[in-house]
Specification:
With 573 residues, the chain is of the alpha+beta class. 52% of the residues lie in helices and 19% in strands. The protein is built from 17 helices and 16 strands. It is flat. About 3% of the residues have low confidence.
Length: 573
């Protein structure tokens, strides 16, 4: 337990250190994203100024030597219209003003009271002019509406001041004041900071808070002091009685602003405590595992004895015990091997007796099969085949073409049914047998029916089980077309479907009732369906499909009373 506690404490210390480093890394990455978003927003404002400086018409209007033109309504209206177009182009910009060097605003509306006084009393504007800077942001205000707000929440505008100079001789004409909605300017920061920081501050070069997000703090002075200090950009400080991990970074586009993010240090330490507790739990589990292992070691010594006793009891009850495993290297191993050898010897003796008995039965079966073959030989099917050839020849001599044709078709079917040389034939050969059968039935029945074929030419030589289609066609004819007592059609389709071949026989006969269709593959119905020319019925076809191709390949039937029946099956391609 002492070792486990020492290990747990070491792991906790290392993990805590790594966790702080990782937190700093994540905070750095998130701060870079925030500063990039802010730089992009500020770059947009700078771009507006650049576009206005490049506007030739505005350059000419601002470069008026005669001051009387500044009071001209049409001149001020033209300047105001040009600036207003930029306002419409950017959602974050609420208004843009141009002033001359005397702070006279070039907008007819803002020439009247009280707007003229608001411009004159704008302290941040005076400080910008006095500083001689090219660009600068103001603190949050409500300019140009009023400047006397005392609540920071009411200050919804930030003004961007910029000198307006000639593009040719860099003569200073006046100033641009771009008023930006504070919420729009910092919208990306308000969303991005939530994923890492508990709060985020933006402060200016005077250490004044421009904006803040997240959990409000009562002691802003600590944040402002951290922002003004030189040295490390990462520190752990106590604020409002709680430690925070602080990170600071200046904006590239406007270095006078700094962004400070804070993470509650207690959350970081909470994860470390959780890991320490997990390590303690693992330590307790290890002790319990040690006790369990000791139990297994003891059990390993006694189990072989118990297993031998159980196996001997089974053997006495005339049950075959399983082979025992010797897990030790002592006398028990010899005892286990001796017992297994005895059981194997007895089992081998019984198997020899069963084998001799099976060989005796096999001899008797062969004898019975020989007697059956002798009985079958008394009626030679080839004699029928030869007799039909003779009758066919006589029909040809007498000019009985119909009789010759029907005997020829019957002879082909008979030859296929008595031939045992092949179990498979090509699709083309199987369809010839179907043609022979249909030819015979046309002479037997007066029903007018037709058989249509839909076959992919590339499948003609594909091998299928012999006499697999003729019995299905026979079923369609006898049970579908003939009871219909009027013209019918049987359609045979054979085509490839991906890696299989689909074979279907569709008739437009009387159909099968739903109750019979549900039980059509029952044992009795299949046995009763084995009637026809060659005694091969649906049961035989279904059995042969599963025998040749597996249980996934079976005969399928769909039928509708009065409309017809479809019988189909798949075979591998």
């Amino acid at each position: 337990m002492i070792i486990i506690l020492a290990i747990a404490s070491s792991i906790s210390w290392v993990y805590n250190k790594k966790l702080i480093e990782q937190t700093g890394t994540i905070a750095d990455q998130k701060m870079q994203i925030i500063t990039m978003d802010m730089d992009k927003e500020i770059a947009t404002i700078l771009g507006i100024c650049d576009n206005l400086r490049d506007n030739e018409e505005l350059q000419q209007l601002m470069n008026l030597e005669d001051e009387t033109f500044w009071n001209d309504y049409s001149t001020m209206k033209k300047i105001s219209d040009i600036l207003q177009k930029s306002v419409y182009a950017y959602t974050s910009v609420t208004s843009i003003f141009a002033t001359n060097l005397d702070k006279q605003i070039c907008d007819p509306l803002y020439q009247i009271y009280p707007y003229r006084e608001i411009i004159a009393d704008y302290k941040d504007f005076d400080e910008f002019i006095a500083s001689g800077k090219f660009n600068a942001f103001s603190a949050p205000t409500n300019f140009p509406n009023r400047l006397d707000s005392i609540n920071d929440i009411e200050k919804s505008e930030i003004t961007f001041f910029s000198q307006y100079m000639s593009n040719y001789n860099f003569k200073l004409f006046g100033y641009l004041l771009i008023n930006i909605n504070k919420e729009q300017l910092f919208r990306d920061v308000s969303q991005t900071h939530k994923k890492v920081f508990d709060f985020t501050y933006i402060i200016d070069e005077k250490n004044e808070v421009i904006n803040k997000f997240g959990t409000p703090l009562q002691e802003d002075d600590i944040i402002r002091a951290f922002g003004s200090r030189d040295g490390k950009n990462h520190e752990i400080l106590e604020i409002n009685g709680e430690e925070y991990y602080l990170i600071r970074q200046s904006l590239s586009a406007y270095p006078d602003w700094k962004i400070i993010g804070g993470i509650a240090y207690g959350k970081v330490k909470k994860d470390s405590t959780l890991i320490l507790n997990i390590v303690y739990i693992i330590g307790i589990f290890s002790v319990l595992a040690g006790i369990f292992i000791a139990y297994l070691l003891a059990k390993k010594i006694t189990d072989p004895i118990i297993e031998i006793n159980r196996a001997m009891t089974q053997f006495e009850e005339r049950k075959w015990p399983r082979h025992l495993n010797a897990n030790t290297e002592d006398e028990l191993k010899s005892l286990v091997h001796g017992f297994n050898h005895m059981v194997d010897q007895v089992k081998a003796l019984l198997e020899q007796v069963h084998k001799e008995h099976e060989e005796k039965i096999k001899v008797e079966v062969n004898s019975l099969e020989l007697r059956l073959e002798l009985l079958q030989a008394q009626i030679n099917p080839h004699f029928i085949h030869n007799t039909l050839n003779a009758v066919k020849y006589l029909a040809l001599l007498k000019g009985a073409e119909d009789i010759r044709e029907i005997i020829h078709s019957f002879n082909l079917l008979l030859r296929a049914s008595i031939s045992e040389a092949r179990d498979f034939v090509s699709i083309n050969e199987e369809l010839e047998l179907v043609d022979s059968y249909i030819n015979i039935q046309r002479y037997r029945y007066d029903n007018d029916f037709q058989v249509l074929y839909n076959l992919d030419d590339c499948l003609e030589r594909t091998q299928i089980p012999k006499l697999i289609l003729q019995p299905i066609v026979e079923n369609s004819l006898f049970h579908g077309i003939i009871p219909k007592d009027r013209k019918g059609t049987i359609k045979i389709s054979i085509f490839a479907v991906r890696d299989k071949i689909l074979i279907s026989v569709i008739d437009d006969g009387v159909g099968i009732e739903s109750d019979k269709l549900e039980s059509i593959f029952s044992e009795n119905l299949l046995q009763n369906s084995n009637k026809g020319f060659n005694n091969i019925g649906l049961k035989n076809i279904n059995t042969r499909l599963k025998l040749y191709y597996g249980d996934d390949y079976t005969l399928q039937i769909e039928s509708s009373v009065g409309k017809g029946t479809c019988v189909w099956f798949y075979i591998p391609k």
